[in-house]
Amino acid sequence: MPEHLSPTRHGARHGERPFAHVAGTGSMLRLALLNFLLNVLTLSLWRFWAKTRVRRLLWSGTAAWGDHAEYTGRGGELFLGFVVVMVSVFMPILVALTAAQMAVEAGNPWGNAFVLLIQAVAVFLAFAGLYRARRYQLSRTLWRGIRAGQDGEAWRYGLMVLGCGLVNVLSLGWTWPWTEMTLARYRLGNTRFGDERFVCTARARGLYRRFAVMWGVAALVLCLPLVTVLGLYLSGDGILESAEPALLFIIGLLLAGGVVLVLALPYAWYRAAVLRQLVAATRFAGTTFHLDARTAPLLRLGLGNWLIGVLSLGILRPWAALREFRFVCANLSADCEPDWSSVRQSAAAAPRLGEGLAAVFDGAGEF
Amino acid sequence: MTALPGRFNDGRTAASRQVTVTPGTNGLDIRGEDGLMVAFWKTADLRADGELPDGAGVRLRCAADPDARLSLAQAEFIRPLLPKPPRFPWLKLAGTFAGALGVLAALWLGIPAGARALAIMVPSAWEKGWGDTLADELERRWGTCRQPAGDAALQLLAARLGAGIAPDLHLNRLVVVRRTENNALALPGGSVLVFSGLLAQAESSDELAGVLAHEFTHLRLRHPTVAMIRAAGIGMAVMLVTGDASGLAASGAAMAMAGAYSRDDESAADAGAVTLLTQAGIGTQGLAAFFRRLDDGPPGLTGWLSTHPDSRARAQAVETQGGERQAPAATRPALEPEQWAAIKGICGQ
Ligand SMILES: [Zn+2]
Fold first, then answer.
1. Is B91 within the bounds of a domain?
2. Does B126 touch chain A (CB under 8 A)?
3. Which co-factors does it depend on (chain B) (predicted)?
């Protein structure tokens, strides 16, 4: 019996699919192109307001149990947060890094240690910033007039990411599923809607079979080109030195594209398990959720979004975000409806300024 | 007027209830399914910024009860009652644009001055360190030409030119490298690399003296260091405005703007070269001749984007300045014929 027809796994138990996304692709494409035009006119300063408009469309198109979500953030908040962080954090780091690099080039023995230290501080700040950005986004997310929110400390999350990164390097990546789930537990476990917290008990157990396959493929795929290049270099024929730089660049680009394509399948296979496990272990007000994330649709979504981003030079990334929202809305189900009358508006204070750090180290995408 | 079905949230809990909404002259009458009044929202208090995408309806707010929401799927009867949604902020956009241009203009004027001020603060040991790293790398990649007689002649010429500016000039390496281009290079911390192509094409020792005087002036004014700091400053400024931490936009802009700034440096170095040559008693016609020979491309094309000013204009400027300050009788050739021959042959045949 094909998997999608099996009633026990996807039928009766997870029958309720309360989420839907109604925003059309046309509206999003129009908005993305308008934003691109205005970004060009304002030397990219429009991007804060652009991001806000994209989010408003993404959020308001998301319906849950018949009511639409709402994004109340403002472009001015993002802009102000960006300026504050630029002046107080980013510029000092950049100046320090430049000075440290100049010291390295001048042969100062302490130079490399300084560069490493500054880079570690930058990674810490980047992820602490992402956590703060998430807090900001959630505090501007409303549904039925009730605000969402996030507790927890940004600096603690930044240190956790730094520690996890260190552990992953030392273990050659083998702790990745464990660190991934640990960080996700912290994020989700500190997420609130109204005064009610999400509960997340996700573990890495059960992920290691898929992870091992992904690790093996990645090691093979990444090692082969490296070994080839190294062999050519050591053989001393001077092939690499004498080759046209443009030709080498094109070959490198093709190789990178090939690596992405080959790695995409095992990565999607692993990612599907992570997402299913994460959602299944997350509860809200007694309701459990189920994400019907499967490898093939996930692969289509990921490769499609990658192509959209690359081919449009990032201009149509809002469309990629819309596809992600649609995917989640179409595949997320709940075992019952929470008792909404017991979920109350929270009095917790919301951050005043925008995303700052995350807008500087912008890795969070278009939404 | 007809009663419309809607969904009402009171903003205190996340519960949602079905209501019927009757638009009246003073506002919206909102009643539960049991017919009891839930709320009355006055027309003046209504806020309409909740138009749902692709005709999914409208979500209303009320100034008197800011957390409450009222959603209506059929909004045709309600829309006429609502205040106009906020217009697109064209004025704000124009303001941002003007502000961005102002910031750019300030940076354009401020970066060269700032780079000069910073260059003075750079420890000379650092400067020498960068220059040595760069020069070692270039020498390794291109290969050098060394012959005792030629080197001695080069040092002699350098000493004669540098006599006028000794305290400022920290020339610690003067090397001929194997490059076919007709060019020479000044690096931070007092290194000058002369390309073998320049020696091959030069018709007199005065030409070489002119080019060296030009490069020594770059060193005296610390142009290589200033240019490095300037490029870093431009990159930083572009990153500040665009927020692009990948450095892609930054390096592109730095390259485009470096050209415009370096043309000022070149003019200053040409003027300084005339002074050095005059002090050393060497004619400036050699430098002018060098520039005239550079000028074989179509005029005007090099113009604004190029890193160097138009060669014909440079030759003319050197001739004018030289003519004002030198009497032809007071000059003698930069090198004796056999010294010049030693330098010409430094790379072998
Ligand atoms: Zn020059």
1. no
2. yes
3. Zn(2+)
